[in-house]
Protein backbone atom coordinates (compact mmCIF):
# COMPACT_ATOMS: atom_id res chain seq x y z
CA UNK A 1 0.00 0.00 0.00
CA UNK A 2 2.85 2.35 0.85
CA UNK A 3 4.53 1.62 -2.50
CA UNK A 4 1.29 2.44 -4.36
CA UNK A 5 0.91 5.77 -2.54
CA UNK A 6 4.51 6.80 -3.30
CA UNK A 7 4.09 5.86 -6.96
CA UNK A 8 0.86 7.85 -7.17
CA UNK A 9 2.51 10.88 -5.54
CA UNK A 10 5.39 10.93 -8.06
CA UNK A 11 2.92 10.51 -10.90
CA UNK A 12 0.93 13.53 -9.72
CA UNK A 13 4.08 15.65 -9.37
CA UNK A 14 5.25 14.66 -12.84
CA UNK A 15 1.87 15.53 -14.33
CA UNK A 16 1.92 18.95 -12.64
CA UNK A 17 5.42 19.73 -13.94
CA UNK A 18 4.55 18.58 -17.44
CA UNK A 19 1.37 20.66 -17.46
CA UNK A 20 3.36 23.82 -16.79
CA UNK A 21 5.43 23.42 -19.97
CA UNK A 22 4.26 25.15 -23.16
CA UNK A 23 2.36 22.90 -25.50
CA UNK A 24 5.04 22.73 -28.21
CA UNK A 25 4.78 19.03 -29.12
CA UNK A 26 1.09 18.77 -29.98
CA UNK A 27 0.41 17.16 -26.58
CA UNK A 28 -3.07 15.90 -25.79
CA UNK A 29 -2.72 17.06 -22.17
CA UNK A 30 -4.30 20.53 -21.83
CA UNK A 31 -2.49 23.34 -20.09
CA UNK A 32 -4.62 24.75 -17.24
CA UNK A 33 -5.18 28.47 -17.55
CA UNK A 34 -4.14 29.23 -13.99
CA UNK A 35 -0.81 27.38 -14.30
CA UNK A 36 0.34 28.89 -17.64
CA UNK A 37 3.17 31.16 -16.46
CA UNK A 38 4.70 32.17 -19.80
CA UNK A 39 3.56 33.30 -23.21
CA UNK A 40 2.80 30.41 -25.59
CA UNK A 41 5.30 29.81 -28.36
CA UNK A 42 4.00 31.03 -31.72
CA UNK A 43 4.67 27.73 -33.50
CA UNK A 44 6.22 24.36 -32.68
CA UNK A 45 9.85 25.44 -32.27
CA UNK A 46 11.68 28.44 -30.91
CA UNK A 47 13.39 30.61 -33.52
CA UNK A 48 16.38 31.47 -31.37
CA UNK A 49 19.28 30.95 -33.78
CA UNK A 50 19.05 34.46 -35.23
CA UNK A 51 18.12 36.11 -31.93
CA UNK A 52 21.38 34.89 -30.38
CA UNK A 53 23.53 35.24 -33.51
CA UNK A 54 26.89 37.01 -33.49
CA UNK A 55 28.64 38.87 -36.27
CA UNK A 56 31.26 36.96 -38.25
CA UNK A 57 34.16 39.43 -38.60
CA UNK A 58 35.86 40.23 -41.87
CA UNK A 59 39.32 38.86 -42.56
CA UNK A 60 42.05 41.24 -41.43
CA UNK A 61 43.15 43.59 -44.21
CA UNK A 62 46.42 45.53 -44.35
CA UNK A 63 46.87 48.51 -46.62
CA UNK A 64 50.10 47.06 -48.03
CA UNK A 65 48.13 44.02 -49.24
CA UNK A 66 45.53 46.04 -51.15
CA UNK A 67 46.60 45.76 -54.78
CA UNK A 68 43.40 47.24 -56.21
CA UNK A 69 40.59 49.34 -54.73
CA UNK A 70 37.55 50.99 -56.29
CA UNK A 71 34.79 52.86 -54.47
CA UNK A 72 31.27 52.34 -55.75
CA UNK A 73 27.92 53.89 -54.90
CA UNK A 74 24.83 51.89 -55.81
CA UNK A 75 21.10 52.08 -55.11
CA UNK A 76 18.61 49.41 -54.05
CA UNK A 77 14.97 49.88 -55.05
CA UNK A 78 12.77 47.88 -52.67
CA UNK A 79 9.94 47.97 -55.23
CA UNK A 80 11.83 45.44 -57.36
CA UNK A 81 10.70 41.85 -56.95
CA UNK A 82 14.11 40.58 -55.85
CA UNK A 83 14.23 43.26 -53.13
CA UNK A 84 10.72 42.67 -51.79
CA UNK A 85 12.11 41.25 -48.53
CA UNK A 86 13.56 44.65 -47.66
CA UNK A 87 10.06 46.18 -47.71
CA UNK A 88 8.15 43.39 -45.96
CA UNK A 89 5.85 44.79 -43.23
CA UNK A 90 6.96 41.92 -40.98
CA UNK A 91 10.62 42.94 -41.14
CA UNK A 92 11.06 46.21 -43.00
CA UNK A 93 14.64 47.46 -43.33
CA UNK A 94 13.78 51.10 -42.64
CA UNK A 95 11.88 50.08 -39.48
CA UNK A 96 14.90 48.14 -38.21
CA UNK A 97 17.18 51.11 -38.82
CA UNK A 98 14.84 53.71 -37.32
CA UNK A 99 14.04 51.60 -34.24
CA UNK A 100 17.74 51.07 -33.56
CA UNK A 101 18.55 54.76 -34.04
CA UNK A 102 15.71 56.01 -31.80
CA UNK A 103 16.64 53.44 -29.14
CA UNK A 104 20.25 54.64 -29.11
CA UNK A 105 21.57 51.30 -30.38
CA UNK A 106 22.82 52.70 -33.70
CA UNK A 107 24.31 56.03 -34.70
CA UNK A 108 23.09 58.01 -37.70
CA UNK A 109 25.45 60.38 -39.50
CA UNK A 110 24.53 63.58 -41.30
CA UNK A 111 24.43 63.34 -45.10
CA UNK A 112 24.67 67.08 -45.77
CA UNK A 113 27.67 67.98 -47.91
CA UNK A 114 30.26 70.39 -46.52
CA UNK A 115 33.51 71.92 -47.71
CA UNK A 116 35.52 69.17 -46.04
CA UNK A 117 33.03 66.47 -47.04
CA UNK A 118 31.56 67.24 -50.49
CA UNK A 119 29.70 63.94 -50.71
CA UNK A 120 28.33 64.08 -47.17
CA UNK A 121 29.13 60.41 -46.55
CA UNK A 122 32.29 60.44 -44.44
CA UNK A 123 30.45 59.76 -41.15
CA UNK A 124 31.66 63.05 -39.66
CA UNK A 125 28.60 64.39 -37.79
CA UNK A 126 26.37 62.28 -35.53
CA UNK A 127 22.66 63.14 -35.59
CA UNK A 128 20.32 63.04 -32.59
CA UNK A 129 17.26 60.76 -32.87
CA UNK A 130 14.89 63.72 -33.18
CA UNK A 131 17.03 65.10 -36.00
CA UNK A 132 16.81 61.76 -37.77
CA UNK A 133 13.02 61.71 -37.52
CA UNK A 134 12.89 65.22 -38.92
CA UNK A 135 14.62 64.01 -42.09
CA UNK A 136 11.53 62.04 -43.15
CA UNK A 137 8.44 63.75 -41.76
CA UNK A 138 7.25 67.04 -43.22
CA UNK A 139 6.75 69.93 -40.80
CA UNK A 140 3.18 71.03 -40.08
CA UNK A 141 1.87 74.28 -38.62
CA UNK A 142 0.01 73.76 -35.33
CA UNK A 143 -2.02 76.62 -33.79
CA UNK A 144 -1.59 77.53 -30.10
CA UNK A 145 -4.61 78.41 -27.93
CA UNK A 146 -4.95 79.99 -24.50
CA UNK A 147 -7.24 78.92 -21.66
CA UNK A 148 -10.17 80.80 -23.24
CA UNK A 149 -9.83 78.92 -26.52
CA UNK A 150 -8.40 81.91 -28.35
CA UNK A 151 -5.57 81.39 -30.80
CA UNK A 152 -2.49 83.18 -29.60
CA UNK A 153 0.04 81.90 -32.10
CA UNK A 154 1.34 78.81 -33.83
CA UNK A 155 4.40 76.60 -33.98
CA UNK A 156 5.99 74.13 -36.36
CA UNK A 157 6.02 70.45 -35.46
CA UNK A 158 7.28 67.33 -37.17
CA UNK A 159 4.61 65.27 -38.89
CA UNK A 160 4.19 61.52 -38.68
CA UNK A 161 6.81 59.32 -40.33
CA UNK A 162 5.55 56.96 -43.04
CA UNK A 163 7.98 54.05 -43.58
CA UNK A 164 6.37 53.21 -46.93
CA UNK A 165 7.71 56.50 -48.29
CA UNK A 166 11.27 55.09 -48.24
CA UNK A 167 11.61 53.02 -51.40
CA UNK A 168 15.34 53.32 -52.09
CA UNK A 169 18.60 52.83 -50.21
CA UNK A 170 22.03 53.93 -51.29
CA UNK A 171 25.07 51.78 -50.53
CA UNK A 172 28.68 52.90 -50.42
CA UNK A 173 31.19 50.09 -50.83
CA UNK A 174 34.78 49.32 -51.73
CA UNK A 175 35.84 46.61 -54.17
CA UNK A 176 39.21 45.33 -52.98
CA UNK A 177 41.76 42.82 -54.16
CA UNK A 178 43.78 41.44 -51.24
CA UNK A 179 47.00 39.99 -52.68
CA UNK A 180 47.84 38.33 -49.37
CA UNK A 181 44.74 36.10 -49.55
CA UNK A 182 44.30 36.35 -53.33
CA UNK A 183 40.71 37.44 -52.78
CA UNK A 184 38.71 40.00 -54.72
CA UNK A 185 35.66 41.09 -52.75
CA UNK A 186 33.29 44.01 -52.10
CA UNK A 187 32.92 45.40 -48.59
CA UNK A 188 29.96 47.61 -47.71
CA UNK A 189 30.88 50.76 -45.80
CA UNK A 190 27.61 52.60 -45.34
CA UNK A 191 23.88 52.49 -46.05
CA UNK A 192 21.61 55.51 -46.49
CA UNK A 193 17.81 55.65 -46.88
CA UNK A 194 16.77 57.97 -49.70
CA UNK A 195 14.25 60.80 -49.42
CA UNK A 196 12.81 63.21 -51.97
CA UNK A 197 14.12 66.74 -51.56
CA UNK A 198 12.12 69.82 -52.53
CA UNK A 199 13.32 73.41 -52.32
CA UNK A 200 11.59 76.59 -53.53
CA UNK A 201 8.95 74.47 -55.25
CA UNK A 202 11.58 72.57 -57.23
CA UNK A 203 11.98 68.79 -57.08
CA UNK A 204 15.69 68.11 -56.48
CA UNK A 205 15.31 64.34 -56.73
CA UNK A 206 16.20 61.76 -54.13
CA UNK A 207 19.06 62.30 -51.71
CA UNK A 208 20.43 60.30 -48.74
CA UNK A 209 18.58 61.27 -45.55
CA UNK A 210 21.45 60.09 -43.33
CA UNK A 211 24.16 57.44 -43.31
CA UNK A 212 24.69 54.49 -41.02
CA UNK A 213 28.07 52.84 -40.69
CA UNK A 214 27.65 49.26 -41.88
CA UNK A 215 30.19 47.63 -39.52
CA UNK A 216 28.19 49.13 -36.62
CA UNK A 217 24.84 48.16 -38.13
CA UNK A 218 25.90 44.53 -38.61
CA UNK A 219 25.47 43.90 -34.87
CA UNK A 220 21.82 44.95 -35.26
CA UNK A 221 21.19 43.28 -38.62
CA UNK A 222 22.54 39.90 -37.51
CA UNK A 223 19.64 39.50 -35.04
CA UNK A 224 16.88 40.56 -37.44
CA UNK A 225 15.31 37.76 -39.51
CA UNK A 226 14.38 38.23 -43.14
CA UNK A 227 10.94 37.32 -44.44
CA UNK A 228 11.07 35.58 -47.82
CA UNK A 229 8.31 34.57 -50.20
CA UNK A 230 8.99 30.85 -50.58
CA UNK A 231 10.24 29.62 -47.19
CA UNK A 232 9.73 30.74 -43.59
CA UNK A 233 12.66 28.64 -42.32
CA UNK A 234 15.56 30.08 -44.31
CA UNK A 235 17.37 31.20 -41.17
CA UNK A 236 18.63 34.31 -42.97
CA UNK A 237 19.26 37.57 -41.17
CA UNK A 238 19.72 41.02 -42.67
CA UNK A 239 23.44 40.65 -42.12
CA UNK A 240 23.35 37.45 -44.18
CA UNK A 241 21.60 38.94 -47.18
CA UNK A 242 23.91 41.94 -47.26
CA UNK A 243 27.04 39.82 -46.89
CA UNK A 244 25.77 37.31 -49.47
CA UNK A 245 24.65 40.27 -51.64
CA UNK A 246 21.12 38.96 -52.08
CA UNK A 247 19.76 42.12 -53.62
CA UNK A 248 19.29 43.80 -56.98
CA UNK A 249 20.92 47.19 -57.48
CA UNK A 250 22.34 49.58 -60.03
CA UNK A 251 25.50 51.69 -59.83
CA UNK A 252 25.04 55.46 -59.61
CA UNK A 253 28.66 56.51 -59.16
CA UNK A 254 32.24 55.27 -59.20
CA UNK A 255 35.25 57.04 -57.77
CA UNK A 256 36.77 59.35 -60.40
CA UNK A 257 39.06 62.42 -60.48
CA UNK A 258 36.19 64.78 -61.31
CA UNK A 259 33.94 63.31 -58.58
CA UNK A 260 31.06 63.04 -61.05
CA UNK A 261 27.96 60.93 -60.66
CA UNK A 262 26.67 58.97 -63.63
CA UNK A 263 23.70 61.32 -64.01
CA UNK A 264 26.11 64.25 -64.30
CA UNK A 265 27.37 63.07 -67.69
CA UNK A 266 24.77 60.57 -68.95
CA UNK A 267 21.03 60.90 -69.43
CA UNK A 268 18.13 58.57 -70.11
CA UNK A 269 18.95 55.00 -71.09
CA UNK A 270 22.64 55.91 -71.29
CA UNK A 271 22.75 56.03 -67.49
CA UNK A 272 21.76 52.38 -67.34
CA UNK A 273 24.33 51.46 -70.00
CA UNK A 274 27.03 53.29 -68.06
CA UNK A 275 26.02 51.51 -64.86
CA UNK A 276 26.30 48.15 -66.58
CA UNK A 277 29.65 49.10 -68.11
CA UNK A 278 31.11 49.89 -64.67
CA UNK A 279 29.68 46.67 -63.29
CA UNK A 280 31.28 44.68 -66.09
CA UNK A 281 34.65 46.37 -65.54
CA UNK A 282 34.60 45.37 -61.87
CA UNK A 283 33.90 41.75 -62.74
CA UNK A 284 36.39 41.71 -65.61
CA UNK A 285 39.19 42.83 -63.29
CA UNK A 286 39.12 39.56 -61.38
CA UNK A 287 38.81 37.57 -64.60
CA UNK A 288 41.86 39.29 -66.06
CA UNK A 289 43.92 38.50 -62.97
CA UNK A 290 43.88 34.79 -63.69
CA UNK A 291 43.54 34.72 -67.48
CA UNK A 292 47.20 35.31 -68.29
From TrEMBL:
Q: Which residues form the signal peptide?
A: 1-19
User: What domain of life is recorded for the organism?
Assistant: Bacteria
Matching InterPro entries, A to Z? Answer: Gliding_motility_assoc_GldN (IPR019847)
What Pfam families would the database entry show?
Answer: GldN
Keywords, alphabetical: Signal
By what name is this protein known?
Gliding motility protein GldN
Gene, per the UniProt record: gldN
Amino acid sequence: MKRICITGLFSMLGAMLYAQQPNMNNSTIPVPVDTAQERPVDGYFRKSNIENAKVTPYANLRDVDVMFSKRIWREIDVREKMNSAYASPKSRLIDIIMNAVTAGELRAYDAVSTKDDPNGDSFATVLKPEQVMGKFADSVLIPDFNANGEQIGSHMATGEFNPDSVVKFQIKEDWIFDKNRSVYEPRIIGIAPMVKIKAAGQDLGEQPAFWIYFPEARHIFVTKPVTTRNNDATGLSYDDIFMKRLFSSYIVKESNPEDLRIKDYAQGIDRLYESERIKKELLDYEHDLWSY
